[in-house]
Amino acid sequence: MAIIERPTPVLDIPALPAAPPAITPSRTFGALKRPVASTGWKSWLFTVDHKKIGLMYGATALFFFIVGGLEAVLIRLQLAAPEGKVLNADLYNQMFTMHATTMVFLFVMPMAAGFANYFIPLQIGARDVAFPRINAFGFWCFLGGGIVINLAWFLGGAADGGWFMYAPNSGPVFSPSNGIDFWALGLQIAGIASLTGAINLIVTVLNMRAPGMSLMKMPVFTWLVTVVQFLLLFAIPVITVALFLLTFQRSFGAQFFDVAAGADPLLWQHLFWIFGHPEVYVLILPSFGIVSEVLPVFSRKPLFGYPFVVFSGAAIGFVGWGVWAHHMFASGLGPVSVAVFSVATMAIAVPTGVKIINWTLTMWGGKLVFSTAMKFAVGLILLFTIGGLSGVTHSVAPSDTQQTDTYYIVAHFHYVLFGGSVFGLFAGFYYWWPKMFGKLLNERLGSLNFWFMVIGMNLTFGPMHILGLQGQPRRMYQWTEARAGEGFFNIAFWNLVASIGSLVLTLGILFFLINIVVTARSKVRAPLDPWNARSLEWMTSNPPKEHNFDSIPKVEHLDEFFHRKYEEDPVTHTMRGVATAEQVLAELERNADPHIHMPSPSYWPLVLAVGLPVIALGVIYSTMVAIVGGFIVLYAIYGWALEPATAVASDFDTPSTNGHAVSTTHG
Amino acid sequence: MAETTTHDAHVSSTGLSNVKLGMWLFLGSECLLFGGLISTYMLYRGRVSDGPTPEQIYDIPFTSVSSFVLLMSSLTMVLAVSAAQKKDDRGVNLWLTTTALLGATFVGGQVYEFTAFYNEGLGFSTSLFGSSFYTLTGFHGVHVTVGIIMLLALVAINKRSSVPGSKSETVEMIGLYWHFVDIVWIIIFTLVYLIPV
Question: Do A29 and B162 touch (CB under 8 A)?
């Protein structure tokens, strides 16, 4: 219902423990009263605050990260010794399918979406996103989709066709359980989250930047996430089509991928990878953005070649559309297609290489501070480069034909996804934690977290290069001693190493979880500007106020915050401090806007999102249930459309006279 | 509304309102949705198994008439937007209703066409041609139906003068969606019906 939502539904800050409770909710036409709770679970359930939504994305994604991680550990335990008995073949199929699905769609994407939600409005000097209710709706769709996908575990078995779900494995003959139905419908719902999020964030970035912030003064994280949103905007509808075709085939007797009926199974592969390859950049670019924020801060230097980082990011966004068929070199595309996609794949390594060089030169000559965030950022540069290089070897089609479906591929994409995406996200955790929660994560535990992860990840995925080149296929649930080979290339040895590595990796993640608990219990508050940071999100309190900025800053520089703290000395040409972070913030608070109106909470995003899983269950089990779901959706849409953008007078409390009166600090 | 002025001024770096920019992005995304469906149809239209072929069942004159009706609804939609900009409430209701009726006529024609094809032996699972034809045109039909619901809903709540936001912009947004769905039909009609297999 983007079409009738106003950008700024107005209600004076509802979350005011200090303000007198003058709010009397009005009845909207949709029959539900407007929610006004500012504390407790209701304030989260019905919130439209981009920061709360960002945190909910993050917390949910972290939960799915643990689930996906346990699935990975089970896979490695099964493969640790010959003829593994931990899982049977069927369960093993479900395990690797759900591990990949969970990590891609339910961890990395939503975690990046969480960071984007939380930090993009802050980085561009806005008070919220363009469509706050749609933002909330997106989160609930993601959660609903994740639940639907995982429900299958308890209702006859999860999806088992591999995360790219090739035909004929996705057909009812080879996968008789409902797992793939849940998978397709769940991803469909989660896709709505990505699509609405993409529209929302693009509009926010294009329309709501603080005065003076031109596109080329935007922080790199915002830039690269914007590129990601364009990729999602055009990639999600393609997977939507593919998933619909699959659902129609499995539930309604269509024949799209039924070879016996004359269908072409390559149709699925094309549709999937036209989505799937841009998706790869959807997974990595947010992490590239995070390290582009972290490296300059901890090198005490501006990012080297800002325009190159930005434009190479945009270039990846364009070229990323022309490489999908390199996932299909073994499918007999014909020499011309193979040559074209081979060359395009080599070409896309260039803009990525540009970034690696920019990051390295950012550190060159800088006063490096090896905080945990910095360690993860440097880890990303090194590990992603390894994964990038093995990726280039895939672009050589004859070589790729040998590597297809072996552990060499598994090694490659774990280096770029774990060494790249996940390390970037962890850099983001350590860098932004004080901004989000007002407390610094423990650096000693952080160091353990980092080293165990880096060693564990190399022990796990490094040997997979050897395993793959020795010919160990992906998705085999057992290997036998008789075929293990000898000497250095004995796959029994390297499988054991990889499995031990996965346990080391698990310990590393455990240190992170312990760190969260320790930090939450600690009473030490983080200083206002713990890292001596550079961008606008640090020009707010820790955590930011409900309305982010007391007055919207006027932006004159890239790295505006830095330039408010430091000026160039005309004689020595060195930077000298002119103001502390506290002084900069106090200046903003002195000029606080007299009236700050924030979007009001709403029931409708949640109600609407609840209707979708009901429809999905209806498609699988009973049309009646789907009809009920349809009515919920229709009811919610009407309630949403009729909810006045401008709340009636009784919904307002007395307008604040300055920013202080409406400010609130989260506990 | 006075309080919102600063915020409204703040939100228009591109000069387009948030809603309009969002709508254009959504329609851009929809292009790829129909792109995928049309590609599927083009791949499979010749694969008829034992079922009827496109030439045997298409009734070009009938579909031409219903296509004409749908295209005329774009004209009435423009008149509705124009009336909204002149704050002519009666005109808005008149033209929105007319647009919805023309759209409903088109959907009615599609229902008739589907029934006729089914009776001639083309079921959803008869052949790849059947599956992909019904999926593509069905998706388009659902889009038109959603448009009709939006039009009628707007007429209904317009009378209560309770449309949140700017009324003329709301009408204009539904108009953008409606024109898009029409343009998609022009492409579908050409590729599906007019170009021989």
Answer: yes
